[in-house]
Amino acid sequence: MSLDGTYDAGNIFAKILRGEAPSVRVFEDEHVMAFMDVFPQARGHTLVIPKHSTARNFLEEEPRVIGPLMLGVQRVARAVRAALEPDGLVITQFNGAASGQTVYHLHFHIIPRWEGQPLKGHGVGGMADMDELKTLAAQIAAKIS
Ligand code: AMP
Q: Closest ligand 1 atom, CA of 37?
């Protein structure tokens, strides 16, 4: 699957949205859901996805979804900053396999960065400890405003 293709309602994020697969939830409103990345590139790596979407990537997304989605990304990124006090944050998004995309439901990555701490590779880090993810999610959720 790459830039062109059909939305697969069986993708893991669609399952998370339907409650068919587990996730460590950070935040949810009418438009977006945020949860912890289980293969984090850094401590606090959080994903934000649109709830009402069958776009596999940013290029396919309907304009009416983009505004609320980006507001959600900013809201969660501010909470990540407030909770974890990183030195910087990467906000990124991949389109197509050649770019590194592995899950074909549009999503944004929020990745805190600390000086002197190298970023783990995209999709190559190990699975996070679930208890640690739950603690981080609670810390971030407490800072959503
Ligand atoms: P991308 O490669 O941009 O499509 O990003 C997909 C991201 O989803 C990767 O960073 C994965 O670590 C993450 N991921 C895959 N499966 C899950 C899952 N079940 N829960 C949370 N994050 C996941």
A: 22
Q: Tens of pLDDT along 13-57?
A: 999 999 999 999 999 999 999 999 999 999 999 999 999 999 999
2 within domain boundaries: no
Into how many domains does the chain fold? 1
Structure tokens at 11: 């993708």
| 136: its two tokens | 């981080």
Q: Are 109 and 90 in contact (CB under 8 A)?
A: yes
Is the pLDDT at 95 greater than 70, yes or no? Answer: yes
Is the minimum distance from the CB of 14 to ligand 1 under 6 angstroms? no
What predicted TM-score, i.e. pTM, was given to this entire model?
0.97
Please tell me the distance from the alpha carbon of residue 33 to that of residue 50, in angstroms, as a whole number: 7
Would residue 29 count as lying in a domain? yes
Is 1 a domain residue?
no
Q: What is the residue range of 86's domain?
A: 12-141
Alpha carbon distance 55, 143 (integer Å) = 29
Which domain CATH number covers 116? 3.30.428.10
* Ligand 1 and 1: CB distance under 6 A: no
Q: Residues with catalytic annotation?
A: 107
